[in-house]
Amino acid sequence: MSHRQPFPAAERPVAQPASARMRPTLAAGQREFKLTRAAPAPSINRMRALTAALLVIAAALPAWAQSRLVAELRVWSTRYNENVQKIDELRTSLEQAAQQNADLDTLLALSQVCFMYGDVRAKTPEEKLESYDRGRQAAKRAIELAPKNAPARFWYGTNTGRWGQTKGIMRSLFLLPTVKGAMETALELDPGYAPAYALGGSIYYEVPGFAGGDLDRSETLFRKGLDLDPHYTNMRVGLARTLSKKGRVADARREALAVLEEKAPSNPADWIVKDVPQAKALLDQIKERP
Predict the structure, then answer these.
(1) CB-based contact 229:235 (threshold 8 Å)
(2) pTM of structure
């Protein structure tokens, strides 16, 4: 009759002489060695479980680092005026994170921070073009991962459009279908996504009439965006410019003054760094006009 082994083969203890199971230690208060029993060695199953746990933790670290960077950008995107060098640090860190594991949130954050760098930190047209191009490439990868993601379409269109503005509108008209397509798709995917209205209003304002520019459509898009977010000061600057271009100076002045008097801007950093100076510049331009 066979007998079951009390331990699986992998865990079965090997008989050892008593002396091998004893470890020499220095007895407290005595100057002599004394044999004490050693702690039992961990089982193989326990070691396997520990190794598996360590592997899970190691695998989670890159994802944790990426989510931390994304959360950090969300904070600093509205506070970068307090420390503009933070834009540089986040762009570098997010580029590294995207190289290691390019998930959707990381790519969107990278596209956004590249746009911020081009607008705020780049010193030359070449630096701006490079940063906007990095931003649109990151957004393109985000679209490949999530074709129905409205922010991915928006950041692709915004970086592409700003690249075209920097290069020169007339030299970049070939990009117009791409930028308009990104804007329209973003709005189809999420009609409540306010930034896409800002992009659309800017497109129809910037582009010459013969190439598809339309000030009435620009005004309509800006107003729809402001209906969704009345504190979106960049949108209001765009509306003021459009009204000025249409010859409605009093309306343009009112909108520009509303930017200066805004008490709770949706993006305080943009309001301080970009929107207030642009509103003041517009008021200076139209102050002599009836």
Answers:
(1) yes
(2) 0.77
Would you say the CATH fold of 191-290 matches that of 61-167? yes
- The tokens for 260 are 């200066």
Please state the length of the chain: 290
For domain 191-290, the question of CATH label 1.25.40.10 is answered with yes
Burial, 89: exposed, middle or buried (Cβ in 10 Å; 0-12, 13-18, 19+)?
Answer: middle
**Quick one: average pLDDT of 50-62?**
40
Q: Tell me the pLDDT tens digit for each residue of 264-278.
A: 999 999 999 999 999
The answer, yes or no, to whether residue 33 has pLDDT greater than 80, is no
Assigned token pair, 264: 């709770």
Can you tell me which residue has the tokens 């990426």?
66
Question: Tens of pLDDT along 63-108?
Answer: 445 589 999 999 999 999 999 999 999 999 999 999 998 899 999 9
- The DSSP H or E segment spanning 207 is none
Instruction: Count other Cβ atoms within 10 Å, centred on residue 258.
Output: 17
Nearest to 131 by CA among 154, 115, 155: 115
**∠ CA 155-161-163, rounded to 5°:** 100
CATH superfamily of 61-167: Tetratricopeptide repeat domain (1.25.40.10)
Closest CA to 274 of 158, 146, 119: 119
Half-sphere exposure of 254 (CA within 13 A, CB side): 5
For the chain, how far is it from start to end, CA to CA, in angstroms?
A: 111
CA distances from 88 to 83, 105, 113, 115, 118 (A): 10, 19, 9, 12, 10
The domains of the chain are located at 61-167, 191-290
Q: State yes or no: pLDDT of 236 exceeds 60.
A: yes
pLDDT at 66: 59
Residue 271 in contact with residue 233, Cβ under 8 Å? yes
pLDDT confidence of residue 21: 38
